[in-house]
């Protein structure tokens, strides 16, 4: 213990201590007031007097609701009465303009009872603490969190811009505008930014105003084509040139001059005036995509540096979303171009059917899928109608769709029946899955490496027999509408999805009256109208939905006959009032039939004399059709094909001529042996028949049936009969 320490200094005399306390209360930087039992003011320090905007004498002896008959002060008087009655302290948090300050502030008001030694309440004290800084910090944090949740909900640039404006107007600014560069951005780095002396063209993408515009006042700005030009050195141009956000006061001469006739500001905003302004570029990944303007009117507290940082943070989040949307739009355009290039460019020119089609890509959120369709001419004037759907979305699905369509065309060229064609297509999809699995093991596969399942519907229509043969690989069944208006789903045997492997496919054969309508489609057409997931087809058709979509499709197709283009539009309007969530492919075909006078059929014996008989019959028929110029070549073709059937095949032998868009010669027999074209040696007596047929005809081939095979050859018509 230090015995040499100076003794404690004596405290002030009692009267001095009382004065010191009064001075401390009077000069305390927090507003403090004391009220008696009747809730009337006894005394108040200087800060409370200043905040009230009244004199000290005007305050003394008055209740708060008598002094200032405003909402918060009426509430304060009520709270004071409650504290005097209960003897319990109360805290009230309010945000209002104090009369003596003239600014909106956040206040924490503490109402504390004053009690004597026995605990009786003699009055109360009111302490008003300015918590504006803390309040605004919480508001900014809440705004950042809310904006983060609301901005970027889609991959649409315009929608993202609107979300930025909607999340900040009112709470942060009186007027918000988001303007994008017309090309969607892409100016990266210093070299990509406009210079300080360059005018900038912007596209007004979104704008929001906290106060609804007065219809009788100045109208909205008229931006030609939604774009406007910012003059050099204007706030938008400077922000884009520097790539940095800027804060401006409305009383700056340059801002007053610019705001007077700035096309970036609607007339209604200019009429109320610009108190302060923030110009914040939308910059992300070294790319500037546009600009956000935040305006407060003169009667609103101007922006400060904290507000500038807040605007920069929120806008930076929006900029990332805008840039992601811009990149997605570019990739989507590439995928859509690829997909459309893989679909048939034209469907006209088929004599067996009249066709039309539609392809609708999915929404931006879902991405492009693998829906596809095709119409393939076959031998014997027949035609194949195909619709398929690859699981997944994006470039991988589009590429897989292209491979499947090419495979179907190749398999159709060898005239496989629908069930056999789907079996071979299933093998291909299985192989694709194995290849992608191997790529995944090697680390070379993309995100969609496992998406290899697909569905397909393959149907062949014969205008001579007027019969349709179809098989399905887990695909929605087609709709058949007969000329009398009866619409029904064809009950195809259920088949597995492509890629399952090892399971059989079965075909259904039905008679189709001339003028019937066939509708082939993907599940995206009907699933939007069904409950739950699935294709929206009826029970029993392989669907897990209630069938609302399928019933609506059937009713729409059963309407009185109309042009196919109109039918197609009616179907899409009825089932897809909004943009589909999944890709949609729709193929409509109205069947035609070949009249009996355009087809001639003869049964031949397996005797060599049948060759001459066949030649004569063909010559007579061509003369009847006015195709004498084709008689010589056709007789040669018939001679070779009939001779081969007699020598190498088995009866029954049938010869058929079809006059369609081409002259088709068919020879059918009971053998399943496939003919093979070979080059005969110089001294061989035979072996040149099929080579001769190939030289004389535009194309030829073989198709197999359950009872044998048919060899066909096709010649172009030189004269239109």
Automatic annotation (TrEMBL):
Amino acid composition bias (Gly residues), ranges on this chain: 530-539
SUPFAM superfamilies: ATPase domain of HSP90 chaperone/DNA topoisomerase II/histidine kinase, GAF domain-like, PYP-like sensor domain (PAS domain)
Pfam families: GAF, HATPase_c_2, PAS_4, SpoIIE
Domain PAC residues, every copy: 90-143
UniProt GO molecular function: phosphatase activity
Domain PAS: 32-87
InterPro entries in the record: Bact_Sigma-Reg (IPR052016), GAF (IPR003018), GAF-like_dom_sf (IPR029016), HATPase_C_sf (IPR036890), HATPase_dom (IPR003594), PAS (IPR000014), PAS-assoc_C (IPR000700), PAS-like_dom_sf (IPR035965)
Keyword Hydrolase belongs to the record: yes
UniProt region (Disordered), positions on chain: 207-251, 530-550
Alphabetized UniProt keyword annotations: Hydrolase
Signal peptide start-end: none
Annotated PANTHER family: STAGE II SPORULATION PROTEIN E, STAGE II SPORULATION PROTEIN E-RELATED
NCBIfam families documented for this protein: sensory_box
Full protein name: SpoIIE family protein phosphatase
Taxon lineage: Bacteria, Bacillati, Actinomycetota, Actinomycetes, Kitasatosporales
